[in-house]
Amino acid sequence: MKLKQRVVLLAILLVIFIFTKVFLIDNLDTSAANREDQRAFQRMLSGLRVALDPRLEHTLQSPWEIAAQWVVPREVYPEDTPELGAVMHAMTTKKIIKADVGYKGTQLKALLILEGGQKVVFKPKRYARDYIVEGEPYAGYDRHNAEVAAFHLDRILGFRRAPLVVGRFVNLRTEIKPVATEQLLGTFMTVGNNTCFYGKCYYCRETEPACADGDIMEGSVTLWLPDVWPLQKHRHPWGRTYREGKLARYE
C-alpha cells in the first residue's frame, strides 16, 4: 500500500475513532441522566403512594377529626399527610348511618352521613368507563371517576386544594334504603332487575335515574369540608353561559 493511501486510511480510522468515542460519551451521559430521571420519578411515586391502612396508632383522634384539622385557608390537606390513607380507608368502609338527597348543584348525588357523624357526598356512576359522551364539553352527566382523578391530580401538582375523594361500592337495598330520608326514598324505583334513584337537583328527572348493577352501585365519595369554614361564591371569569346563542362577557 502506498504512503498516500496509508495516510488516508489512517485519517479515516482516526475520524471513526473520534466519532465513536464522542457517541459513547454522549450515550453514557444520556443514560446517566435517564437513570437519574427514573430514580427521581420513583421517589415522586413513592411519596404520592397512599396505603389504605385503617390504623391510627399515634393518636386517639378519629379520622374525621384529623381531616378537619388539616383544613386551612390555602389548602385542604397538608403536604406531609401520613394519616391520609386512614382517612380515605374510613371514607371507603365506614357504615352509612343516614342518606338524604343532595339538593345543591346540577348533578345527581346523595348526601351521606358516615359512622362518626362525617358528611360525604356520593356521586353515582352513570356511564361505563369506555363510553364517549358526544356533543358539547358540558354534555351528559358528570363522571364519578373524574372526581377521583381530580383529587389525585391535585395531589400530584401540589395544589392540595381539592377535597378528598375515593371510589366506593354501596348496596342500595341494604345500605341506603334502610337509612334514607323520605325525600330520597321517594325517588327510588326498579328498572328491570336494577335498583335506581333520581334524587333532587337542578337537572334531576324521574325519566333519567341512576341505576345500580342489581343492588350494587359504584360511585365517588367526597369528604365534606368542616362547617366552621363558610364558602364564598366567586364567579369564574371564563365561565360558559350554557345557553345556545348567548355569549359570556369575555366572548
Description:
The protein is an alpha+beta fold and 251 residues long. Helices cover 35% and strands 17% of the residues. The strands form 2 sheets. A 5-stranded antiparallel beta sheet has the order 1-2-3-8-4, sandwiched between helices. The protein contains 6 helices and 8 strands; from the N terminus they run H-H-H-E-E-E-H-E-H-H-E-E-E-E.
Describe the secondary structure blueprint for this structure:
Elements: H1 3-48, H2 63-70, H3 84-93, E1 96-101, E2 110-114, E3 118-124, H4 144-157, E4 165-171, H5 172-176, H6 182-185, E5 188-191, E6 194-197, E7 210-211, E8 216-223
Antiparallel strand pairs: 1-2, 2-3, 3-8, 4-8, 5-6, 6-7
Helix pairs in contact: 2-3
Domain FAM20 C-terminal: 188-251
Organism: Horornis vulcanius
GO cellular component, one term: Golgi apparatus
Task: Sum this structure up briefly.
The chain has six helices and eight strands. The chain is an alpha+beta fold and 251 residues long. The model has no long low-confidence stretch (mean pLDDT 87).
Note the main attributes of this structure.
single chain, 251 residues, alpha+beta, five-stranded antiparallel beta sheet, three-stranded antiparallel beta sheet, 6 helices, extended, disulfide bond, metal-binding
What order do the strands of the largest sheet run in, or round the barrel if closed? Answer: 1-2-3-8-4
What sort of overall outline do the alpha carbons produce when their principal axes are compared? extended
Mean pLDDT across residues: 87
* Share of residues in helices: 25-40%
Could you give the distance between the termini? 80 Å
Number of helices: 6
Total E-strand runs: 8
Percent strand equals 15-25%
Structural class assignment: alpha+beta
Report the radius of gyration as a whole number of Å. 28 Å
- What are the low-pLDDT stretches, counting only 5+ consecutive residues below 50? none
**What is the helix/strand order?**
HHHEEEHEHHEEEE
Can you summarize the main beta sheet? 5 strands, antiparallel
